[in-house]
Amino acid sequence: MRKLIYYVAVTVDGFIAAPDGAFDFFPLEGDHGPWLTERYPKTIPGHFRETLGLTQARPRAFDTVLMGRATHQVAVDEGLASGYPHLRQYVFTSHPGDLPVEDGLTITSGDPVAVVRELKAEPSDLDIWLCGGGALAATLIDEIDEFRLKVNPLILGAGIPLVAGQAAPVLSLRRRMAREFESGVTYMEFVRA
């Protein structure tokens, strides 16, 4: 069965974005960048893929991406219909009618848990990427199989937390791996124990 993997950049104090939703303070330069790009080439937004020579990159981890409206809005604000046209995309929003649509992009006000359970049941060797945001992560907390975190040496003090809002506690995670980079970023994987 496919897994739902929450792969996201986070600060030391647990925020995935500033209070206004900005996340441009996360460092892109450094020795962590090439390693993460090699491991997760399909997580690079579509409009950067050609510049980075990733248009022919085969999927290594994910073929589907899930996100909330605010995460998707970043691409819309750049004039794009979607940020990840090379993946099958699901955007969860309470106002689906006011977003541009393209092939491979599903905009829905449906139950995220039901959608994830259907996606997990599909036959595939590739997993499902939850790329944001914190409120969607809270809704899907019981469906998240792994947390793969790019922990950045930053403290915001306030912002959008990794899991925002009411969520059932997850008290049984096991760290599978950690890799430290000279840039100060630490990549960590946690799985349900």
UniProtKB/TrEMBL annotation:
Q: Which domain of life, per UniProt?
A: Bacteria
**Protein name (Swiss-Prot/TrEMBL):** Dihydrofolate reductase family protein
Q: Which residues form the Bacterial bifunctional deaminase-reductase C-terminal domain?
A: 2-186
Gene source species: Dietzia aerolata
What single Pfam family name could you report for this chain, choosing any that match? RibD_C
Q: Which InterPro entries match?
A: DHFR-like_dom_sf, RibDG_C, Riboflavin_Biosynth_HTPR
Transmembrane stretches in the record are none
